[in-house]
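step=encode ok
step=design start
structure_in=
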């Protein structure tokens, strides 16, 4: 089922992130889909800011997994599986350990290791709609 479908401009990122927070709340694993440069990391950075993250939020493209703390000592996990070649490599990187912790996990490029993720994830698709516009679609099941 589609929970959100809207087009936004970069200046509306804080507003869009605020709309996402109640959709994220019932989930622990949030999967972000979109092409390179679509704005997945930028969106995650803003969500983390609104969750009062005290650490610097940066792309985990090379580290694969970054962890951050909020001012309430909640741990946020940010994964980027772009460089992962599949399920086995994701397992070797320790992805599954984080997925089954009690931490809130944001995962970019989840399609690289699809079989790792449980059914009850939130699925966020970000797509470029021109230089400054993005379309965001949020689903509570894999195929919308």
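sequence_out=
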């Amino acid at each position: 089922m589609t929970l959100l479908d809207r087009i936004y401009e970069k200046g509306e990122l804080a507003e869009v992130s605020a709309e996402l927070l109640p959709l994220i709340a019932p989930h622990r694993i949030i999967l972000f889909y979109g092409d390179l440069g679509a704005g997945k990391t930028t969106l995650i950075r803003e969500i983390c800011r609104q969750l009062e993250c005290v650490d610097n939020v940066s792309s985990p493209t090379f580290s694969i997994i970054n962890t951050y703390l909020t001012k309430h000592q909640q741990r946020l996990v940010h994964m980027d599986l772009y460089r992962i070649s599949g399920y086995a490599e994701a397992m070797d990187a320790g992805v599954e350990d984080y997925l089954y912790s009690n931490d809130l996990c944001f995962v970019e490029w989840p399609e690289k290791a699809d079989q790792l993720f449980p059914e009850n994830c939130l699925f966020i698709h970000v797509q470029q709609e021109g230089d400054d516009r993005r379309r965001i679609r949020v689903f509570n099941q894999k195929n919308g």
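step=design ok
step=annotate ok -> The CA atoms of residues 2 and 139 lie 5 Å apart.
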